[in-house]
Amino acid sequence: MKLENALSPMIRNRSILTQTVELEARELIKKIKQLKLDVINQRIEKKAISLIRPEVLDSWIRSFNYGLSVYDYNYAPALDKDALQQRCQEKASLLESAEPFIQQLSTMLTDSQCIILLSDEAGSMLRVLEGSKNLEDQNKRFKLVAGSIWNEATVGTCAHGISLIHGIPMQISGPEHYCEKYDDIFCSSAPIFDGNHNLSGTLSIVSPSFHQQNAHSLGLVVSMVWGIQKDIQMGFNKELLHLTLDSADKGVMTINKSGIITQANTMANSFFQQLLEHELIGMPYQSVLGPLPFIESVLKNSQAVFDTEVYLERWNQRITMLSVRAILDNAGQNLGLVLAFKKNGLFRKSSSKGHNLAAKFSFADILGDAPDLLDNIDVSRRFSRLDANILIQGESGTGKEMFAHAIHQESRPDGPFVAVNCAAIPSTLIESELFGYEAGSFTGAEKQGRRGKIELAHGGTLFLDEIGDMPLELQPVLLRVLDEKRVMRLGSSLYLPVDFRLISATNHDLSQLVESQRFRQDLLYRLQVLQINIPPLRNRGQDIILMARHFAQKIAAKQGIEVPELSDALLMALLNYDWPGNVRQLENTILYAVNVCRGSIVGPQHLPANIQEEVQHLIADTAEPASKNLPIKEIEKIFIQDALLQSNHNISDAALRLNMSRSTLYRKIKEYQLKTK
User: Which of 59, 230, 512, 615 has its CA 20 to 30 A from that of 22?
Assistant: First the structure.
């Protein structure tokens, strides 16, 4: 914003002919007051007004929406004595740097009727300097004292209030204030930023008379603020030098409280020069490093983090963060942080994108045409678009994890996919696996500590398989993580914010576990916001044949052999087996059968012994296809569907495969209401 744009129109439009000043001023005041009423009462659109600056127009509307009165004093609340004292201690650096300039300003304005104000970033007055007894008496009607919280929400439109919101110098005159009680007040204000570019407060010159200020008032307050900021910057640089003396051979960056990179040494710039098209300074750290929970924690809680390895997904690189430390002023206030990473091995190429945290399957990888399965895929796709917890239920081996992978690919494809099998980890270790631990937390712990699976899932998906086997004592801890979206490592007192989508799966009836007091009901409610029930393989009909052929082709390709033919007797046996292990058991069965078979046709005699026992009647007499689980007509329908699929819906080829005439096949297709191309 150009400085001349910060000037009030009361100054810009002032006539150089002194005899017309009063008349012009009165007319301008009247016009501005009417425009203000028209704007807040929605009688005129903002774009139709050229006299009033956009920042002032917006401020009028916000002030009205705060419920403040145009006509009455809007007295500001004030900090009590103890709260003011504490605030002054917190802002000691600002007060110390500003005091010489305030005194200099006071001397310069001795002959002027002016009040000097120093506020913090919330609008709380830290210093109120009145130049004369007359000004003290006038100021009593406004109740403007040290500790008063003057900002847009408490008193309406004012110069330093707009400076705080927009971070720009601002001059407000008379009727530009929201409250008409300030029609005689004139104020020039400028924002003060600390050494790490955080908004720290404002400096203002206030006069109770329009004639006491001019364009030079704004220039004067801006020049004083520059001096204050230079003094603050010197203190910041001294602290920064102290923090980085031991980092000369390392990359160093400073980040302010808003997450913006404010400084970077030569080493840091050279690290990222090959990856970025412009300088680091001014960029949000997330654009360079990605979202990192521990950086947010240091910005918020000032607790340092050391020796943490970071995977930069955008660049497919890894760096070791040696230290992330808060920058504190002499009053202990957090100004941001400085992070350092060593030159050695900064860019170590990872073996694959996302390391081992990438999803492996999409919905296209889920095979099957069974109506129940297709319904589940459709529901899962729609659930993917909702950022809510999902519970997947189904027997072991039905493909619950494939659905979790696919949902992740649809909802958070750029984030990590972290899977944890709650039944496969010993109960004594699952806590450290999930939540991570600090160095030395327990005997056998890695000396540098370890990030937990929840922390690793930040920005992506956490998949908790066999959630019903999670130890009861850990369930309230998981519930707290879901509620608060933050996690604490074992042996730490620092909470790390985490953002992940939770997908859990189980083959148990969790409601029964709740009744037997082996699972928390409140956790169950959080897990099953959205629910998916995957059908068992035995209820999926032709999918058994479809998947058996797929597994045979996959195994043959992997072993470099010709794809074997699956005999009708084998397919009949597969259709009539219960498949308690579902898809996983079917894949293992086909692997066994293909490798046991010495010819080109796999038959039921090549099945594992336990399955042969179940389907012995089919092996003994393949001429009469008996049925254990499926009716004959259903089996016939499945074989016709399979033949049509294998022949790409060529009727002649399908009839030949089925050893029936074309007319009979047409009749069967009509009878079973099968689709043909």
Answer: 59
